[in-house]
Design the sequence.
């Protein structure tokens, strides 16, 4: 008798890498990222295609605001306007030609996400919230689109910790205000097939040279509180410009951390190549290649799969014979 069973996952780590913000100059680097491989094939599963930035200060001329800024302003004025966000078209091309997942930051779900519908297929979009916006309803609006189109949601932790760094990174600590909010965001994403917690560090007085101090134990507690989620690391926003030269080593060390017999981190969301924004915290494409190959020696990396791939395997057995 033949039974259908889910295929065992063939990877335990995903790498999503690309520029802080996409533009017409660095778009060619995405194809170089797609070509990074080991003996088994491509080993970077996704890339960043961010067209709109959540900057601390608004530049009304759009400088540093992202390639989508002007188009988004037109759609703000007339949601029915015949306007295509440049990043949505780029995302469509990237998925079609490389099979990589595309990851993007979402500020206005009802304006941005309809642009990806019909262009980015099921399983090929990761939409995350800005760390400066910890409001659950924006996540809920994003989750509506994610459930409708089979996309994933990323949840970045907030910048404010609400405790000292030593308290947060104490393995015996119970929780911090940041963790409560972060875990609460996951409840707004209920129903989404894949929810990814993204640890991007916290802004505290004790952070030293880190742009945002890592709090691995706090991230561990939130993952354990939400066992159906994955946990990714954002080493670019943790190390920042001052520790840019340590990003690769920091990432490798973090990907070796364990959690209840398994791995603590399931993925990496890292800035690589060149960009108009946050350039000084990007690793080079050569460093990305070295990082990916180093990680592939210790972890099983996810390869980009063609859209629509069905992960099922056939198990053959005969009833009554231990099948």
Sequence:
């Amino acid at each position: 008798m033949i039974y259908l069973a889910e295929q065992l996952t063939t990877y335990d780590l995903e790498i999503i890498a690309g520029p802080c913000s996409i533009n017409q100059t660095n778009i060619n680097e995405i194809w170089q990222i797609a070509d990074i491989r080991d003996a088994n094939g491509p080993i970077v599963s996704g890339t960043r295609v961010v067209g709109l930035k959540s900057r601390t200060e608004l530049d009304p001329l759009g400088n540093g605001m992202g390639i989508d800024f002007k188009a988004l302003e037109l759609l703000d004025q007339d949601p029915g306007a015949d306007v295509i966000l440049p990043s949505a078209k780029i995302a469509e091309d990237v998925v079609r030609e490389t099979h990589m997942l595309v990851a993007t930051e979402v500020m206005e779900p009802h304006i941005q996400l309809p642009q990806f519908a019909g262009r980015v297929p099921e399983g090929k979009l990761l939409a995350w919230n800005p760390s400066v916006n910890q409001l659950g309803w924006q996540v809920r609006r994003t989750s509506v689109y994610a459930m409708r189109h089979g996309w994933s949601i990323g949840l970045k932790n907030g910048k404010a910790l609400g405790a000292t760094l030593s308290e947060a990174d104490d393995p015996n600590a119970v929780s911090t205000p940041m963790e409560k909010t972060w875990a609460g965001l996951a409840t707004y994403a209920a129903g989404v097939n894949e929810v990814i917690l993204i640890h991007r560090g916290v802004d505290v007085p004790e952070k030293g040279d880190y742009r945002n101090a890592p709090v691995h134990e706090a991230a561990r507690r939130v993952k354990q509180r939400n066992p159906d989620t994955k946990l990714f690391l954002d080493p670019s926003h943790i190390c920042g410009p001052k520790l840019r030269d340590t990003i690769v080593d920091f990432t490798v060390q973090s990907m070796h951390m364990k959690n209840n017999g398994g791995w603590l981190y399931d993925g990496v969301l890292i800035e690589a190549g060149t960009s108009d924004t946050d350039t000084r915290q990007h690793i080079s494409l050569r460093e990305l290649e070295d990082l990916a190959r180093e990680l592939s020696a210790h972890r099983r990396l996810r390869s980009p799969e063609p859209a629509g791939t069905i992960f099922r395997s056939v198990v053959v057995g005969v009833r009554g014979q231990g099948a």
